[in-house]
Write a structure and sequence with these properties.
Largest sheet: 5 strands, parallel
Strand order of the largest sheet: 2-3-1-4-5
Number of helices: 8
Number of domains: 2
Number of strands: 5
Distance between the termini: 62 Å
Strand content: 5-15%
Helix content: 25-40%
Shape: globular
């Protein structure tokens, strides 16, 4: 069998000797291919999620959260001056539009925020203003779609969403850059 030189010289000895390709350096397996490293967050099963919202969750979003775990909505009258570590939840929803909820976030969550994944859920036009006020693990304007497994849903909560490509917006930016360079 005539194999291309790269397969004949690099990969064939691995197969013949029965060695596991993962034991070899990546340059031996794919000498001419540079693989880009993807940053996929490592999700800790022990960490719980705190949603800081500035827009209402739709009924579908509430159902989606409920399907993936225990959802607790912060109630200032019942939960004030208690740390979030004392609550039993998978997803704690704190409404940043309410003064008491903001106070709870600053007093109880902020000092121990490394124990939780803190997600900001807001309108698109609020992202820049609200994301600068505190450290959030992710900023979402839309929750992920329903997933078969809870772990997949939780991973999607931490991954930055890809924007939808817009031909018109790209064309407008191109024309604006060309116009500003021409000046």
């Amino acid at each position: 069998m005539n194999l291309p030189p790269i397969i004949g010289s690099e990969l064939l000895p691995v197969v013949e000797r029965g060695r596991n390709p993962s034991e070899l350096p990546s340059s031996a397996v794919f000498p001419s291919v540079q693989l880009a490293s993807l940053t996929v967050p490592s999700v800790s099963e022990n960490k719980r999620y705190i949603f800081c919202i500035s827009k209402d969750l739709s009924s579908d979003d509430k159902e989606n959260l409920k399907d993936n775990g225990r959802v607790l909505y912060y109630n200032h009258d019942l939960m004030s001056n208690l740390p979030p570590t004392s609550f039993d939840f998978d997803y704690l929803v704190v409404d940043l539009r309410d003064k008491n909820h903001r106070y709870f976030f600053l007093k109880e969550v902020k000092p121990i925020e490394n124990k939780f994944y803190v997600i900001l859920y807001c309108h698109k036009f609020e992202v820049e203003d609200l994301s600068n006020l505190a450290h959030y693990d992710n900023v979402l304007t839309k929750l992920p779609m329903k997933q078969a497994r809870k772990v997949d849903f939780n991973n999607l909560l931490l991954v930055e969403r890809l924007p939808k490509p817009s031909c018109f917006l790209s064309l407008a930016k191109y024309i604006f850059r060309a116009y500003s360079q021409a000046k």
